[in-house]
């Protein structure tokens, strides 16, 4: 390998990392919107969800609605930060996606299929944000390598 290749990463690497960040931003925005909608549904009308008697993590559906609504709003806001390539947004996005996984696991009996879909979706978001190491900040408006 020559010195110029190792000193300056290829533009394909920048495109790959930038693409992952945009992918994670879009997926987090969708997860946020879905969380907002799910929260509104649970707060407004409890009849949409299945109730499971004797569930260990039983919580009032309105309470779960507020949890999902709050996480959805924060996820949507963090996704805007990801579009600007802010480092804080990448770290916060991983944390929010992890909290979305936990919230959907704990509310699994109320809306099982959707909870599983959101758990998988949040896992993909975490993967995309962890693979993107921020090395492309020069391309997206940050510091130059």
Architecture overview:
- This protein is an all-alpha fold and 145 residues long.
- It has one domain (21-131).
- The chain contains five helices and no strands.
- The chain has helices spanning 3-7, 11-44, 61-83, 87-106, 112-131.
- Helix 2 (11-44) packs antiparallel against helix 5 and helix 4 runs antiparallel to helix 5 (112-131).
- It is elongated and about 45 Å long.
Feature tags:
5 helices; disordered N terminus; 145 residues; 70% helix; 0% strand
Q: Gist?
A:
Residues 22-133 form the DUF7144 domain. With 145 residues, this protein is mainly α.
Classify the secondary structure makeup into a structural class: mainly alpha
Count of helical segments? 5
Low-confidence stretches: 3-7, 136-145
The H-and-E topology, N to C, reads as: HHHHH
Q: Report mean pLDDT, rounded to a whole number.
A: 79
| Shape designation | elongated
What is the CA-atom radius of gyration, in angstroms? 18 Å
Through-space gap between termini: 19 Å
Note the main sheet: none
How much helical structure, as a percent, in the residues?
over 70%
Instruction: Give the percentage of residues in beta strands.
Output: under 5%
Write the layout of secondary structure elements.
Layout: H1 3-7, H2 11-44, H3 61-83, H4 87-106, H5 112-131
Helix pairs in contact: 2-3, 2-5, 3-4, 4-5
Protein name: DUF7144 domain-containing protein
Keywords: Membrane, Transmembrane, Transmembrane helix
Transmembrane segments: 20-44, 64-83, 88-107, 113-131
